[in-house]
Write a structure and sequence with these properties.
Elements lengths: L3 H15 L7 E4 L5 H9 L2 E4 L2 H11 L7 H15 L11 H34 L3 H5 L2 H4 L4
Parallel strand pairs: 1-2
Helix pairs in contact: 1-2, 3-4
């Protein structure tokens, strides 16, 4: 299937060709967010976000080799949703306020990681080109290597 909006549209066409009522369709997927999940939940499908570690355990239980493949994973996800859905929760749609909080929290986390990455780069470059910088500028704590 293609990526993006075209892929989501193709998926919905495929699903509606096989089922008239979306409430009777259960979908297993290894994530609880993203365009695919949001569109499926909005259309009324019962979406089960399964923990990838749980799926790996099911794979070990149902496959001798334990190798990972897309068709094999699809079969395992379908089997889990078919037989054990009562052990898993469905993904529910978020309110606009909850969506906004998620976006802001992810952006905040990304900014924290970027800041730390920049500090690490600056420290590395400073020590590489001017090893006496900690003594010269009194920045021993900032320039000290962590490890």
């Amino acid at each position: 299937m293609p990526e993006g909006v075209a892929g989501v549209a193709a998926l919905h066409e495929f699903l509606t060709a096989h089922a008239d009522d979306p409430t009777g369709v259960a979908v297993g997927i290894e994530t609880d967010r993203g365009m695919w999940v949001t569109s499926l939940v909005a259309a009324g499908y019962a979406v089960y976000a399964l923990n990838p570690l749980s799926v790996a355990r099911y794979r070990e239980r149902h496959s001798i080799s334990g190798t990972k493949s897309d068709p094999g994973d699809a079969a395992i996800l379908a089997e889990v949703v078919r037989t054990d859905r009562h052990h898993h929760r469905t993904v529910s749609g978020d309110s606009p306020e909850a969506q906004a909080v998620k976006v802001l929290a992810r952006a905040h986390q990304r900014l924290i990681w970027d800041r730390q990455r920049q500090v690490n780069r600056a420290r590395s470059v400073l020590l590489e080109f001017f090893p006496a910088a900690p003594e010269a500028f009194g920045t021993e704590r900032w320039c000290r290597r962590r490890g």
